[in-house]
Structure formats: C-alpha cells, structure tokens
Amino acid sequence: MPASPERKTVQISLSLEQLYNEDALRKKVARHVRIPVKHLGHTRIISRSLDARSRPPKFRLRVEHSTVPFDADTPLMSAFQDVSHAPKKAVIVGAGPAGYFAALECLMHGIKPIVLDRGFDVRTRRKDLRAIQQEGVVHPHSNYCFGEGGAGTYSDGKLYTRSHKRGNIDSVLRLLVEHGAHSDILVDAHPHIGSNKLPKVVSSIRESIERFGGEVHFGAHVTDFLVEGDTCKGVVCNGETVVGDVVVLATGHSARDIYDLLQRRNILVEFKPFALGVRVEHPQPLIDELQYGQRHRHEHLPAASYRLVAQVQERGVYSFCMCPGGLIVPAATAPGELVTNGMSMSRRDSPFANSGIVTEIQEHHIPREFGNDALAGLRYQQHIEQTMFANNNSEKQVAPSQNLEDFVRGKDSASVLPTSYIPGLHTAPLHSLLPQDIALALQEGFKQFDRKMKGFLTSEAQIVATESRTSSPVRIPRDPETLEHTHVKGLYPCAEGAGYAGGIVSAALDGQRVIRCIARAFSTSH
Ligand SMILES: Cc1cc2nc3c(=O)[nH]c(=O)nc-3n(C[C@H](O)[C@H](O)[C@H](O)COP(=O)(O)OP(=O)(O)OC[C@H]3O[C@@H](n4cnc5c(N)ncnc54)[C@H](O)[C@@H]3O)c2cc1C
C-alpha cells in the first residue's frame, strides 16, 4: 500500500517585509517543523491575520504543508443546473446579495429564479450615483441602496460576519472568487473587496444566473403581492403580474414602500430595534498612529481600523461599518433625506478614516407622535433624515457636520474640516439638531471611546449626519423552521430587509438558506 501523504498545519508569523516573500514563508515553516526547506514539499496559506498590537505589527499565518500537491477545489459552480425549463419557479424580489445568492442557490437545486429589481444594472447605476454625488439628485429607484447588487455593490465590501457557520461562509466567499473576487478573501481574517472591484463580481453573478436559464429584470418595481386565500402566488411588477411557486422578498432595509404595502395588505410586520447616529471622520494617519504607533504606514500595513463599543446607561453606543482609507457617501433613497454611509476602494488609500457611530433605538425611545404600530421606527428614522436635509437650504446632498470636540462640548463649530464626502458639508449644531437622547448618548459614547483609544476624541475629526440605515427598523416575521411568512404561505421574507441579516455575507447566507428551505418544501410536496 502506498504511504499516505503527510499533511500538517503550522502557525507562523511574518514581518511586514516578509509578507509576500515565498522563500521567507517556506523557511519559517521548515524551521517550525524542523526539516530542511528542500524536503518541505508543498505549502498553502489557510488563514492570515494582522497582529496590530505587536510592535512592529506582524502577520500571523496558518500554513498547511504536504508531501504531495494539494488538489484544486472543485468549483461550486460545477453544481449549477440548467433551469431554463425547470418546473419550479422562485420569484426573487431584490438583486442584492440576498437575492443574487438565492438565485445561485436555485441553480444548485434545479429551481428557476426570476429576479426582479427596481434599480438598474451596475453600469447604468453608476451614472445615477454620479448624479447624487455631483448634483445632489437622488433617483428613487437607482442609488447607493437600490439597483443591481443592492446596497452591497457600491459598498465598502468588507466581508465580515458574526455567523460562526464557517462552512457556509466559505461557500459565499468561494462563489465570490469564482465570479472574479481576489482569492485573498479566502484566507484573510478581515476580507475586503472594495467598491471598484465589486461591480464586476456582481455582473458576473448575473451572467451565471442568466447562462443557466434564470432571469434577471431591471427597472422592475414590485408594487403588490398576488395573494389567493392564505398563499402568495406572485407579485405585481410594473403593473403586470409575475407568477411563481414561491416569492422571496429580499428588498433590503430601505424599501419603505414594501413595508407600507405589507401593512396595507394586512400582512404581519413588526417593530424591530435599530440604531441611528452619525458618521465620524478622522484623518487616516491619525488612526494609524493611534493603532500602530506610526503615522507613516509600511506599504504592507493596511489602513488601520477600529471597533469601539460603549455603554451609556441602558443604551449601547458603537462603531458601525468602519471604513479605513474610505469615503463617506450619500446613501439616501429618496429626495429630501440626508443619509450617510461609508465605502472604500480595494486599496483603501483615501486619506480619511470614517465610521458610523450609532446608538440603539428601542421601541420606548420613539416619541409618541410617530405612532405605536410596527412602522413607528421607520417614521422616526425618516423624520430625522428629513430634518437633517431641511437644515441645509441647498436642496442638494450637502450634509450637516460638526467638529467632534465641539459636538461633545455642545458648542457650535466655526468651520468644516477637509472631508471625503463629495457633495460637501456645512456646519450645524448637531448636538441640538439631533433628538436630545441620541445626542447625549453619542456625546457620552465619544468620551468613553477616547478613554479606550486615547486621541480618538479630537478637534482633527468631525461628525456628519445622518447614519440611519444601519439595519431595518421593521421585522417581517417568518417561521423559524420553514422560513415562510408566519401568516402567508409561499412568501419568504429574506435577509436584511426582513430583519434576519446585517451585511453582505450574512444577507447572502440568508438568501441561500431560504432557497434550501424552499427546495426541501418542494421535494416533500411531491
Ligand atoms: C454605502 C454602503 C456601504 C456598505 N458597506 C458594507 C460592508 O463593507 N460590508 C457589509 O457586509 N455590508 C455593507 N453594507 C451593507 C450591505 O450592503 C447590506 O447589508 C446588504 O447589501 C443587504 O443585502 P440584501 O440583499 O438583504 O438587501 P439590499 O442589498 O438592500 O438589496 C435589496 C434590493 O432590493 C431592491 N428592491 C427594493 N425594493 C424593491 C421593490 N419594491 N421592487 C423591486 N426591487 C426592490 C433594491 O433595488 C435592492 O437592489 C453597506 C451598505 C451601504 C449602503
């Protein structure tokens, strides 16, 4: 019998200079396992993470070595089936990460996906983003949240998730790589794609869906559900009916018309706690100095990031979607609102670091005037976004901002600092413009952050309003086993808009999960 190949995993650390040096890596592994380099055989990196606390910072790697070459993974796409004439059809509303990964999962199960999105393909969408940035004109169907790839396309492209089901996360990351993302995302502890690379990956996913017989329709605004008895049989899209065996509702956290529609049609929706606050922007070299102890980073050292949490009485205040070397973007989905978010390019090379800093909004934080029904949080969220817009008389996306130190001291700012936010900033007393409880929680939160990261609370930073689309303020309830709406058969609330995901990877995972449940239901109904 031939001897079985020897395969082992070791942990090593590499200096910044050694990071992309194959010889240095092999030498370290060989030294670790005490064999000469020439007998080491084959090596591959399993995981890579930055140890920013060591001085100087270094990378920690898990490396596998083997006496025989590693087999290449079988592409997941090889399991896709031609669904052109499949007997079962899933109408998927929304072409965000959830909708597109649901469609790819359909191809694995022989179900034909029909994806409908109100926005446009990634290329057309880019022109609408330019109009928001440069002219302040928000297209209600094509913006930073709506359109092909959803809120995930022109996002920061961080691929972190708190989900611990690693096997499933790997399948999302591998599918992204099979559609053009860099294979580094398979090993990096904090994988990141970047706004400049995501559109190509997203359009390649669409090409797969169509090549295997699925359909993707843009400019396809869903305005009603076809419900017969207690079963959803399809949707009304641009005034026409689109029928399927099931409807997957993956419309994201900004589809306010869908929440209204559900409430009008007496399809149960519930209030969901969410978070709201501001975006804070520092010079990136300052954050590098606070985290790495050096303002001038080594070329292999990524722009430094942070994650901060504070407890202010009974309320959490935390950093959200931190974008090192990134840009603040105008993420409103309708005219007359001011909403911020953050993104970055793959190189993360802008001179700014920004992050949402938000506080929890529970049901009891919502003033009575916004009602006490399921949509009260949504109305409150919209009211704050509109207040911030009204504060700027220009009718454009010029955002209210305040020097961070002034905000914490409750003092007006005389001028704005340089910013990555292209529509521009104007000074505003955000300490009095934001609802008092929110302003107070954020002020105290910033003080606590400064105790954890000395120098964070500085006059070199400013805050920009409003960071309000952190998660959905509404939940669409579903059965925990079948994932079907609790009251309407055939309707599958999915991902972020339904309150079951937050972020690109978790939305994609939920899209896959919903289709697996649907496939199971189809197979048992035969
Ligand atoms: C600027 C920005 C940066 C971000 N950065 C990151 C990041 O770095 N990492 C991360 O994990 N997450 C990030 N996010 C969040 C992430 O993009 C979302 O969590 C994720 O996209 C949610 O996926 P989804 O599929 O549930 O919904 P969405 O991505 O919101 O997609 C919903 C889709 O439904 C469509 N739709 C809505 N209503 C209708 C209708 N009535 N008819 C037809 N279609 C409809 C929309 O056009 C949209 O395409 C960012 C978001 C933004 C805006």
Descriptive account of the structure:
The chain has helices at 22-33, 97-109, 122-135, 166-178, 198-211, 256-264, 284-292, 376-390, 404-409, 430-433, 436-452, 495-498, 504-524; strands at residues 7-14, 42-51, 58-66, 89-93, 112-116, 215-217, 222-228, 231-237, 240-243, 246-249, 270-271, 274-283, 309-312, 315-323, 326-330, 340-344, 352-361, 399-403, 425-427, 462-467, 474-475, 491-493. With 526 residues, the protein is an alpha+beta fold. The protein folds into 3 domains: 7-66, Alpha-Beta Plaits (2-Layer Sandwich); 80-269 and 474-524, FAD/NAD(P)-binding domain (3-Layer(bba) Sandwich); 273-467, no CATH class. The chain has a 7-stranded mixed β-sheet. Strands 6-5-4-10-22 form a 5-stranded parallel β-sheet. The chain has a 3-stranded antiparallel β-sheet with strand order 1-3-2, covered by helices on one side. The longest helix is centred in the C-terminal third of the chain and has 21 residues, at 504-524. The two termini are 47 Å apart. The mean pLDDT is 95. The chain binds flavin-adenine dinucleotide. Flavin-adenine dinucleotide binds next to α2, α6, β16, α12 and α13.
